[in-house]
Specification:
about 280 residues; alpha/beta; Rossmann fold; 13 helices; about 15% strand; globular; binds adenosine-5'-triphosphate; binds magnesium ion
Amino acid sequence: MDQAVTLMKYAQANPAARETRVISVSSGKGGVGKTNSVVNLAIAFTRMGKRVLLLDADLGLGNLDVLLGLAPRYNIGHLLRGERNIKEVLADGPGGIKILPASSGVQELTSLSAEERLALASHLETLESEFDIMIIDTGAGISDNVLFFNMAAQEIMVVVTPEPTSITDAYALMKVLLHKHGERRFKLLVNEARNRKEGIEVYRKISLAAERFLSISVEYIGCVLLDENVQKSVARQKAVMELFPGSKACQCYEEIAREISEAPAEGALKGGMQFFWRQFLDRNI
Ligand SMILES: Nc1ncnc2c1ncn2[C@@H]1O[C@H](COP(=O)(O)OP(=O)(O)OP(=O)(O)O)[C@@H](O)[C@H]1O
Ligand SMILES: [Mg+2]
């Protein structure tokens, strides 16, 4: 059967429900703090009473579980090969967060096929009522998977550090998402800022360029200060929110989580877990 027809039937059988807020976290340049942001924001959200699912979407080279010292038995590869169901694959993280782990070193998953995307979407939708927020750690760069997860999410958060290469790569990511997929709204998190003023300066640089040359709006959602407790926690394979809850980085994660949860969810056209099929249909990817 024609793929569009299959997807349409699927969509009709699964009426839209917008319960889970879906936020993707990307960066352009690697190593800027996406995974730490995802994990620690997730813990901050759970402390606010929210049920959080983390999707490690760095599919072939995932390391969210490593950062947390977990050794999950199964990963997304088992799910997509039909060897395990979604409940079996979800791993328990700190503070009650659930994690869908990626595989590591599996070449086939570095670029998901249309069928695999649809399969993943239908598995995730079965969890719609169980989570308030799903955060997707997309991995770095502008690969097909990264672009796909960003356009599938309701809200796109770009992580950047004050380093010039990180700034140009963040800009490049937004430019590609605009030109290829029409994305016009981005949230910016400045990580490893030496102080709050530097966070705002980095934001200004990016938003000025984005407004002037791309005519897109970039929203500042705050900075996470450079804090050696983050590095210490990474070395001990624990989240800094667990090990050093009063540290300055943690205060920032808490502020950002509050900022996000107070802002209304975005994306009238992109809703909840039922996002994937819409993206297939609406944008013909
Ligand atoms: N706020 C911070 N203060 C100090 N160091 C930090 C901070 N955030 C991240 N780091 C350091 O940066 C390193 C990389 O962070 P992380 O793994 O979260 O980046 P990433 O963007 O997910 O990387 P990748 O692109 O490889 O997935 C961490 O191991 C940590 O040492
Ligand atoms: Mg990472």
